[in-house]
Amino acid sequence: MRILQLLPEARWADAVTNQALFMDRALRDLGHETSLGADEADLDLPVKVQDACQAVQGDWDLVLDHFSIGADYHGPLKDSRGRRWLIYHNITPAHFLAPWAPEIAARCQEGRRSLPDLLQGCEAALADSGFNAKELRSIGHRNVQVLPIAVPRPPELDRPVSPSLARVFASRRPLLLFVGRIAPQKDHVALLKTLQILRKGDYPGAELILVGDSRGFEEYERHLLETGRSFGIGSAVHFLPRLPAIELWSLYRLADLFLCLSLHEGFCVPVVEAFLSRLPVVAGPAGAVPETAGGAALLAAEGEPTAAAECCHAILSKPDLAKHLVAKGTRRAVDFSRESLTRRLGKLLSRFTTDTTPPVIPKSRFRPRPSSRPRAGASGGSC
Q1: Inter-axis angle of helices 130-139 and 102-120, to 10 degrees?
Q2: What is the Cα–Cα distance from 48 to 41, expressed in whole angstroms?
Q3: DSSP character for 73?
Q4: 324 — phi, psi (to 5°)?
Q5: How far is the C-alpha of 248 from the C-alpha of 21, rounded, in Å?
Q6: Would you state the torsion angle of the CA atoms of residues 53, 55, 56, 58, taken in this order, to the nearest 10 degrees?
Q7: Are 211 and 182 in contact (CB under 8 A)?
């Protein structure tokens, strides 16, 4: 088959983009002809990305729309030829974003509003978590399958740790790590509060590394820098932007634990990356995080930095617990391997020529579903 994948933005180290790249390779391995299109794309991606509005005018057997925010190509897509599937990565509820990036919030709101109409023309929908699938079923689409995001083990884990990062961070203990976009739904304020609690307690030398792209959320990043200073921990918090792969995976190996207290996640790829790096995980229970973790992380109550600090203390003070979590995380990461998910994708596509059951989407059942509002603390895709 000739298969086109579409996504609003194709960005380096972005979870939705990485899934599209995985699927491009997997589809080719399965014998299909493929192409990618996006409204906007970074220039240093490993494959060519077409302009999405032009790409949809081609002759495709199947179009896969990676839906995570409103997109310019959705207009011409409705008039395109070929069959369509929607791949749902969730949309960050606009109320998290509006105070800091109103334009991005408006795109998220429009994307969520347009979702029922887009589903009307789709034969099937794929969701990268049960959490996301539940939302599609609540709209009324009955042909929903789950295809998790592929998180393969990278070759960088078999290479030496970056010497420059080792010189800076190897002696700083304990070292906490979070990887994810610098955006409000990630609740970095809760991470800062957790670090403050740890430093006032048994871990005065604790430090926190925050790796993430702040494009579009520069004002929010400035707020975090000011908040860190006001908490008296400014020098213990390290903001690192886009990094080469060897440096990113070096940080996973240099850290003592991974801490994620996001208020909304449709999957949360970095949790699986931590598992691959044999790094114990402390996480909040929002969105799909418990599902992705699969019992291999310590879960702290949402919006409770004190509870998160207690979980961190448990891991840091009990080597057997840390070892137990690492073993469980290693087993859980296998579920997201490229080989496992390529087989699953092949089985889903095998239904393409046999399953002609039309979707049923009664519009009257749709209600925009905002995520629960943040408690303590403070792109629109949510992977």
Answers
A1: 60
A2: 9
A3: T
A4: -65, -45
A5: 19
A6: 140
A7: no
User: Do 155-335 and 2-150+338-365 have the same topology in CATH?
Assistant: yes
To 10 degrees, what angle do helices 305-317 and 188-200 make? 60
**Interval 73-78 mean pLDDT:** 86
Fold of 2-150+338-365: Rossmann fold (3.40.50)
**Cβ atoms 7, 38 nearer than 8 A:** yes
155-335: what fold?
Answer: Rossmann fold (3.40.50)
**To 10 degrees, the CA torsion angle through 42, 15, 94, 365?**
120
Q: Which amino acid is at 135?
A: E
Q: Is the pTM of this model over 0.70?
A: yes
Cα 324 from Cα 347, distance rounded (Å):
34
**What residues are paired with 146 via a beta bridge?**
127
Domain boundaries, the chain: 2-150+338-365, 155-335
Identify the pLDDT of residue 376.
31
Model confidence at 360: pLDDT above 60: no
Q: Which amino acid is at 219?
A: E
Nearest alpha-carbon partner for 16 in 26, 8, 25, 27: 8
Distance between CA atoms of residues 178 and 328, nearest Å: 20
Nearest to 253 by CA among 283, 277, 275: 277
pLDDT tens string 110-162: 888 888 888 888 888 999 999 999 999 988 888 899 999 999 999 999 999 99
SS (H, E, C) 240-286: ECCCCHHHHHHHHHHCCEEEECCCCCCCCHHHHHHHHCCCCEEECCC
